[in-house]
């Protein structure tokens, strides 16, 4: 039996059927084995989550933040877009941008980080991801101890950044600020970002 048939992905006339989940749901290991999954598929509580095509605002915010963070993060850290974090067997999420702790570099063929390796996770909210980005993902990131989380929303074509820091005792994020035009922080490292630069071709 082929892997495609085993996972309910038989091909007919160039098209694929949707995956049929096994009893108990998918596991994080399945994400590396399932054929023909769309790019950026996530796993939440054993269910596959497929994302919609990326809007221009979303792509521009990711570019702005990735460049700024890469220029200002500690040299021992790594800044990556759309890289997975394996939280546990049933949850593997893909923040829009992440910053690793010092010296946490992956093997060239590794497809995910562990949560203990992450310093900051950033989610840019899209129309189809509001509940996940505002409620589900921050709760799960906090539950595994990721110390910093940013949520980015759109207002009039410009980003608003909501900044959170982990309360380790409560295993929950506490809001520390809302930033409209300029993001200026001292943690997790000194950083300053002109959020109005989103529409410049070279931020």
Automatic annotation (TrEMBL):
<keyword id="KW-0378">Hydrolase</keyword>
<feature type="domain" description="Putative restriction endonuclease">
    <location>
        <begin position="29"/>
        <end position="195"/>
    </location>
</feature>
<keyword id="KW-0255">Endonuclease</keyword>
<dbReference type="Pfam" id="PF05685">
    <property type="entry name" value="Uma2"/>
</dbReference>
<dbReference type="GO" id="GO:0004519">
    <property type="term" value="F:endonuclease activity"/>
</dbReference>
<protein>
    <submittedName>
        <fullName>Uma2 family endonuclease</fullName>
    </submittedName>
</protein>
<dbReference type="InterPro" id="IPR011335">
    <property type="entry name" value="Restrct_endonuc-II-like"/>
</dbReference>
<keyword id="KW-0540">Nuclease</keyword>
<dbReference type="InterPro" id="IPR008538">
    <property type="entry name" value="Uma2"/>
</dbReference>
<dbReference type="InterPro" id="IPR012296">
    <property type="entry name" value="Nuclease_put_TT1808"/>
</dbReference>
